[in-house]
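Put briefly, the fold is written as integer tokens. The lines below illustrate.
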Amino acid sequence: MTQTINIAQRFCGPPETGNGGYVCGLIAEHIDGPAMVRLQEPTPLDVAMELRPAPTGVELVRGASVIATARRSEVALAVPRAPDYAQAEAAAREYRGFKSHPFPHCFVCGPQRKAGDGMRIFPGRLAGTGLVASPWLPDASLADSSGLVRPEFLWAALDCPGAFSFEHAEGTPVLLGELAASISGRVKVGERCVVIGWELTRDGRRHFTGTALFSEAGELRGLARATWFEVVPPEKG
């Protein structure tokens, strides 16, 4: 069945574009089980798009353009042990996005978003490891009618930490190309959580990352594998 989807301005990533993890999560709700979502074009904001069946899953379209596709896909990752909440807080103080951020109003990791507006996940380097980590305290605006965080926001939480898990040239934005996630547990509003990210491998300007979401007690609530692309700015003439 075809459904209309409209991404509100609040849920931006880059300016005038939907946050990748949030968009992926909305689409993935229409896949039974773990899903992989491929973002083929920037997702516009405040524009009606159609989500419709596709041969292997579903696709999000605007006119003749396919914005994204999704299909069922298992996520197999060796997940590192979760840091405790205090360690995640210490890591977040080292978040490099505080000094320089290509998208400072990103719904998930933008430092210029206030509490209750953005998700304020700030993944910084975890001392003595190859991980980045951040605490996360989900607010009431992210809840469904039962007081649990809606699944699309769990996908969003598993998005941006991957972008800060690898080194790249300062001032070079990175954009999400693909996100496969498996949600294994729900999160309550106001529940203290920890999110981590790590680089799996890289191929030139393409980076592959893992992310995981934990309860404060270290229970795994979700994991994801992502593909990121460094965006090379056009040369000035």
Observations:
- The longest helix spans residues 20-28.
- The longest strand covers residues 193-203.
- The radius of gyration is 17 Å.
- Residues 116 and 181 are 25 Å apart (CA to CA).
